Structure formats: C-alpha cells, structure tokens
Amino acid sequence: MNRPDTQALGGTVNARIGKVYMSLSKAHRKAADYVLSNVFRSATMSIDELANAVGISVATANRFARALGFEGYPQFRAELVYGFEAMLAPIDNLRSEIQRPATSTEIISSSLNEDMANLEATRRGLAPDLCNHAVRQILNAERIYIVGYGASAFLAGLMAHSLDPFCNTVQSTLGSGGPSNVARQLFKYTERDLVIGISFPRYAEDVVTILQQLREKGVPILALTDAPSSPLASLANVTLYAQTRRNFSPNSEGAALCLIEAICSAVAHQAKAPVHAASEMTKFMLPWLYQEPNATSRKSQAAAASKIIDMDRPA
C-alpha cells in the first residue's frame, strides 16, 4: 500500500526550518526537531498542544512560527496542514464539537439528526437507472467479491452476509488475510464476475489500488462511496452514493450501512425464488439458532421448515 509522504506534504515548512535552523534559539530548535519528526501529528495540534508536547511556552511556540517567517502560529499550522486537509477535517470537527457545551442527550439527539439528514440526502440522490443496473450486476455475476478496509471491511462483511442467500458465491475482505492475499484471489476474476468496492472519507488506498488493477483486467466494478469526487467513482462501472457526514467521526457507518441494506433488499426482491432460498438457509441454520427451552423440538421445527420450503419451492 502506498503511504502518504508526510515529509513531502510538510515540505514548505521543512524548507523554511532548513534555511533558518542554525540561527534558531535552543527552544526553537527543540520545536523544529519535534515538527520535523512528527509532521502529521504537529499538523493536528493547537498551539497549546504543540507547546505542551515540545515542553515550551505558548509564547515561545508562537515566536517559533514567526522565526520561520510566518505571521503567527495559525499561519504556520495552515501551511503544515496543506495536503492533509481531508485527513485532518474530522479531527478539526471533533475539536470544535467538544468545545461546545451540551448534555449527553443533546449529543445523542444531534447525532441521530445527522443520520436522518444523511439518509434523506442519500434517498434524494438515488438514480433509478443506476440502482437497477447495480441490482442486475449483482444478480448476474457468477462470483462477487466485496472489497473494503478499515471500518468499510465490516460493511463489506455485512453486505456479503445479506447477499449470500441470493447469490452463488459472495466473499469479502473481512478476515481475508490482507490486500496481497485478496489480490491473489481477484486475479482469477473475469468479466463474468463482480467486485464491489466500499470506501468513504478518509479513503483507503488499498481499495483504490485493487480497483485500479481490476479495471485494467476488465472486471465489472460497483462502487459504494460518498461523492463523485471520490477516487472510487472514476474506477467503477456503476457508483451509488451515500451521504455520510458526521461531526464526531470521519463518517457515519450507519448511513452507509442503510444504503447497503437497501441494495440487498432490492436484490432479494428481484432474485429468483427468494423465499425458497431464505427458507433453505433457515432450515440449514436451525441447529445454531436459539430456541426457548419449552419450544417445539428441533426435529419438529425442521419438519415444519421443510413443509414451508416445499410450499415455496419453485415449480
């Protein structure tokens, strides 16, 4: 996986430090050494946090910024942040939110309101042609692999779980053994298969890399992401969007999961003999499903399930 070059992203600040380093005071050199060794971490810090981490006063931290040619610490941090904006936005949002007085009930209510707004925006943004195309892709694929990393790995696992009764072969990256192992499996995929890529800000480089490789092979790709500006959008044959804005975290996984469950519901509706498929799976799973102590025996339940299956069996 390609990692961001933090030295390159903080390059302007690094260059300024290099030009004046020998003329800096002992305290300022201490600050410079910390920034050079911790570019990303420094970009996330307020002036108080940097001063505390380095072991200098706030006034000295501000003078350090001026010694580098900036008007003050805000301008120094703005330059340090350049290139990290998307990664740092959730941290800045969190810093702002925790400074706002509020009760736990107000925060919970506000969070629920955020997701209701996300879901309404997602619903309004649905394109009928793309929705229909996505469902056909899923139902027509011989094999499906769902790719997601970070929190999206769990979303991929849940989507695979929901699609499994209605599709021949569904796998996901959850517990897959890492990107290189996934790549080995996806190397065998063809135009008859489907790969579903899931990633939201802050986008996972591994997902983008895998989809780039698959696009070159001509494997159909369905992307689930947040906006047309997402790196997944340009790689997919079909893209469906979920608004996932959240003040206290980078994304709302709940809003993304709602889109996934909605897609799986559409697949179940369009699948051949969905009731029969669900009944067969339920019959097979009966030994692992909890039953009340006084409930009907497993043998009787299995017989009842078989009767239901026979009724639902396609002609």
Automatic annotation (TrEMBL):
Domain HTH rpiR-type residues, every copy? 11-87
Q: Which Gene3D superfamilies match?
A: Glucose-6-phosphate isomerase like protein, domain 1 (3.40.50.10490), Winged helix-like DNA-binding domain superfamily/Winged helix DNA-binding domain (1.10.10.10)
> Is Transcription regulation found in the keyword set?
yes
| Family matches, as CDD domains | SIS_RpiR
SUPFAM superfamilies linked to this entry? Homeodomain-like, SIS domain
**InterPro entries to which the protein is assigned, alphabetical:** Homeodomain-like_sf, HTH_RpiR, RpiR-like, RpiR-like_SIS, SIS_dom, SIS_dom_sf, WH-like_DNA-bd_sf
Q: Which UniProt keywords apply?
A: DNA-binding, Glycolysis, Transcription, Transcription regulation
Keyword Ribonucleoprotein carried by entry = no
The record's section on Pfam families has: HTH_6 (PF01418), SIS (PF01380)
Please state every residue range assigned to the domain named SIS.
Answer: 134-273
- PANTHER family, per the entry: GLUCOKINASE
In Swiss-Prot or TrEMBL terms, this protein is called: MurR/RpiR family transcriptional regulator
Q: Which organism is it from?
A: Undibacterium hunanense
